[in-house]
Structure prediction request, 207 residues.
Amino acid sequence: MIDTLQYITQGIAPQDHVENIRKACLNGITWVQLRIKNTEYRTVLKTAIEARKITNEFGVKLIINDHYKIAKEVQADGVHLGKTDTCPLIARQYLGNDFIIGGTANTLEDCRILLDKKVDYIGLGPYQFTETKRNLSPVLGVKGYRDIVKELKTKTPIIAIGGIAINDVAPILKTGVYGIAVSGVITSNMSSIKEFQDVLKATYLPE
Prediction:
């Protein structure tokens, strides 16, 4: 099951990510993606081990960004692969079918490539400008999501990402997108988790 609200971690130091994961779990999050960039493998592994302990304690899904081998080593729930990361087919061969594999997409063509590679969900963005990511692709906005979802006609969950705030959720979901991923807003205000969850429940359009 792919959750409709996904928290992507932030932090200056690895321990900040761990602390934010605990805070998010305490505030009711059900899906966490550990995203640590430009950090050596051993440090990411150590952080992932701590993250897995916390998420296991709270019964929260843990996805590891980029590092599919670490995802297996710590027995996370899955991995999220960026466009320049390992091919999802290689990760699937290594991880097997019990792990969730997600991929990043910025365009319709990106989505089609990921669907061919049998990912479990697609993180599609950016919705709007965000300082979380370098080398940002052109923003999609509501119209971009609507056009891509209409063209794809897929049952694979599409997760909107990129600068999403509470008041963006309803318009985004009405495009047919499955859910949202949030980083900055939740990191700065953990109580917003419940707000996001409430809006998702109120506006989610079941098939």
